[in-house]
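=== RUN LOG ===
request id: a7f3
mode: sequence -> structure
chains: 1
length: 326
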Amino acid sequence: MNLALPTVNDPLGEILHFLRMSGNFYCHSELSAPWAVEMPALRDFMMLHVVTSGTCCLEVDNQEVVLQPGDLALLPRCEGHQLASAPGMAGVKLFDTSREQLSDRYEILKLGGGGKPSTLLCGVFQFDHPAARHLVTLLPRVIVVEAWNSPNADWIQSTVRTIGSEARELRPGGETIITRLADILVIHAIRSWIAVDPTAQTGWFGALRDRRLGPVIAQIHRDPYRAWTLDSLAAEAAMSRSAFASRFTERVGEPAMHYVTRWKMHTAVTWLSEEDVAVVELARRLGYESEAAFSRAFKRFVGVSPGSMRKRKQQTGLAAEQQLSR
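=== RESULT ===
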């Protein structure tokens, strides 16, 4: 007997599924007041902070947030910021501190003047899928999940303890456990923001919830190879061509075919960074009749040629790895 599982129509959930982490690195911080640490900006990385005891003041530009035990703070674009025992302090740069590296993925930072103690677990990681990259551009610069306001405080603490244990010892399978748990914490933070922030109810996020547009956007994401047309997209939505075009542009903020092309270029960027694939092969995969046509579209949307993008990705990846391992 053949058993077919039902298809779940959850475009927003599917986007969160694409948010898979890689390149994880963790730091357990043992701090005593007064203390302050300047965290660097890292392009194409996320940073996560969880306060496991005591308190912490997070400062991003002019925004200050006091984090309590169990609170979780996510910086989706890993902008430069400061963690401190109190607001307005002059911090030491992270890479100027003395840290004990226990494994390739885990280190301990001890800092402070001997006063009130605090402990934090901080994680840095990359995200791979183009859907995740697009999602990250739309998120706020910082997302805070307050433990006192969350029914999930117990499992968050348990998850953090498990990550710390696995990162310290790196037993067989530990890397897989860490990455999956990091996925869960990040998705929980983003989902919490989507549930309460009014800006998450409009634009692209709102379109993903639209009963007509959401499934079509999900199809574009799943099948970037397909030779989409405005007619075929409208048929997927069971709408007329003109009604679909108008609704898509109004909700998403750009024409449907523009979105399709941009999504193909997102996918191409991922392939360029992850695979040793020729540009002519990328053009073929994505339905372009020639390498030149693909390269023109790529440069129009990305800003550089495919060859330049591959070189930049290689250099950026190497620089980031060197910076994290300092």
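=== NOTES ===
The radius of gyration is 22 Å.
The chain has twelve helices and twelve strands.
=== END ===
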